Amino acid sequence: MFSHIFVSVSDFDRALRFYSAMFETLGVESRFCDRDRPWAGWQSSNQQRPYFVICRPHNGLPHEPGNGQMVAFMADSRDAVRRAHQAALENGGTCEGPPGLRPEYHAHYYGAYFRDPDGNKLCVACHSATEA
Fold first, then answer.
1. pLDDT tens digit string along 106-118?
2. From 42's CA, which of 14, 48, 56, 68 has a CA 20 to 30 Å away?
């Protein structure tokens, strides 16, 4: 369904540290990084798309996080959800909901919610019925 998702940031180096640490826990590979532009992107293993990109706002205006917007990333295990949430918090993120089951979504939904250092809301979720 998605080609790519862009999220703007105000401090590229800070955001790069945050997202690199989080994606490492999820096994998501770096696709490119150009500090001169500045922008960076990640993609799932062996896939061209979809990919996720951070950059400064194209129009040159200050970054503003959206109200009611969130990007959710897939994790292959509940442990990966916990590790991604921890990496996010250790790299400047703020907790919006600790890792745990969310049966109001479905019986096996295990997710964690947080904001990146710029206030963009993110989620990491596992939909597996087992701890795996």
1. 999 999 999 999 9
2. 68
Domain of residue 97, CATH code: 3.10.180.10
Q: How many structural domains comprise the chain?
A: 1
Q: What DSSP line would sit under 27-61, residue for residue?
A: TPEEEEEETTTTEEEEE-TT--S-EEEEE--TTSS
In a domain, 63, yes or no: no
Give the HSE-up count for residue 68: Cα atoms under 13 Å, Cβ half-sphere. 0
- State which residues form the domain around 107: 4-58+69-126
Which residues are CB-neighbours of 62 under 8 A, at least 6 positions away?
10
SS3 content of the chain, % helix, strand, coil (to 5): 20, 35, 45
